[in-house]
Predict the 3D structure of the following.
Amino acid sequence: MTATKLEPDVRRTAEATPPVRRSAVSPLSMAVLGAATLYFLLPIFWLVVAATKSTGDLTSTFGLWFADFHLVDNLRAVAEFQDGVFFRWLGNSALYSLGGATVGTLLAAMAGYALAKYEFRGRELTFSVILGGVLVPYTALAVPLFLLLAEGGLTNSVWSVLLPSMISPFGVYLARIYAAASVPGELLEAGRVDGASESRLFFTMALRLMAPALVTIFLFQFVAVWNNFLLPLVMLSSNDKYPVTLGLYTLNTQLTLVPELKAIIVTASLLSVLPLVIAFLCLQRFWRSGLAAGSVKA
């Protein structure tokens, strides 16, 4: 009886509900999206294919298809090259990226939270100056940073790469927008009435509410530091402190003298992008939600 009574109601509700209009995707849009996808994925596919070839096959076979499978031999050659110097470079990149992104995200969260939730003289001017830092090209800062760190005797050290990597003006911008929208002032006032200190309010409440934005900031900073080439080139002179980008560059400069390095360079290049792929796959859910929320709340 119940099912008999409900069926007409459900039918009437379905008839009263207007059909959802699906936005049509034009063929031109699909063509542009397809071309963009091909543009980004084709080099990756070439890299995967090339990493399975021997040095001879790299020049004598078609670049976009497989030949004899030599991936295991190439991986062994990368591991044995100069007593495993590639994995030292990979470890240095992980140190610079994880350290710089972690501390940079925390500093950006603290600065963005303070700019969003505290009233003080010069707040907007401070935010404008930080925002102006986003517009300054990184190449313009490399030499001044080198001179500053040279005064402190920090060049050719891990700190010469780590310290500049901990600063993210874009992270401060994103953190301020997200903190202003996602951390209610009433919640903070209630915490203060209950006797919570400002540091406790930030670390136990604000950080949790800002988590999606912090993941986005962390990913942006991690990728930027991992792919950074100019700063290590200016700061570092010791081979054992190189990140993977600078290490692969030094190998590439020797290619004309030692053509046998080609397979090692290609395979090492493939290995160097795997951490970025893993990071994006693991954090893409938080990254997309944080970026979308930040864009809407801006």
